[in-house]
Structure formats: structure tokens, C-alpha cells
Fold this protein.
Amino acid sequence: MADEFRPYFDALARGILAFPRCGDCGRFHWYPMKLCPFCHGAGIGWEAVSGVASLFSWTIVRHDFDPAAIERYGLRAPYIVALLEFADAPGVRLISNLVEADPDALAIGMAVQALFPAHDGRVLFRPARVG
Ligand SMILES: [Zn+2]
């Protein structure tokens, strides 16, 4: 694992979703980098977010082709690969899996939330509970 990813996985292990944020220009970025991709500053910190995200886009995998996905994550086709945005980390888009969701009921912008504990350094998401 590249060193710049370590804070991400360390936070996940503590039940926290966090993203890199430049201390110089204040912008978030993803994936982690040694220098800010916007201002090239080196003062990158990590900021925890709520774990609530919105669905930017998705695809549905309908054929099991990765035995590791089944074994490690219990993901059997059909499953949802989601691209997520975070209101409290503008500019970050994270790819994950959306579980406990009806593939036919997905909509752009729908609210989802991180599902902890993370498994094997991977956080899944599910539709946000209303109310
Ligand atoms: Zn910057």
C-alpha cells in the first residue's frame, strides 16, 4: 500500500471515513496524493466526514467474475458498484459497493450512508435511513 493511503485505512479501521484535504488551499481530493493536485502544497491533512453520500452514478454487475468478491465481501451478482459524492467533502468521488438496495430503485442523488465496520479495508454503503 502506498504510504499516502495509510491514513485512509487507519481511519476506516476506527469506524471513520476520512478524506485528504489540503491545508494550503482547503480543497479535498481523492485519491490520496503526496502533493495537493490543485496547488501542489505538501500540507495535506485528513478530515473525517459523516459517511452520508449521494449516488452520482452506478453500474450493476450481473455476472460473478471475481471469486474474491464473493469470498471476501459476500458480493454475489447482481451487485451494485456505485460512484459516490460527499456534501462534506466537495470534489471527492469514491467508488464502493451499494448493498441492501434494490437495483431497480436507484436514482441519481439518492442518499446513502457508510456501513461500518469496514471489512478488509473496504467500506460499503447502503441507502440512508429516512427519519
Ligand atoms: Zn492545495
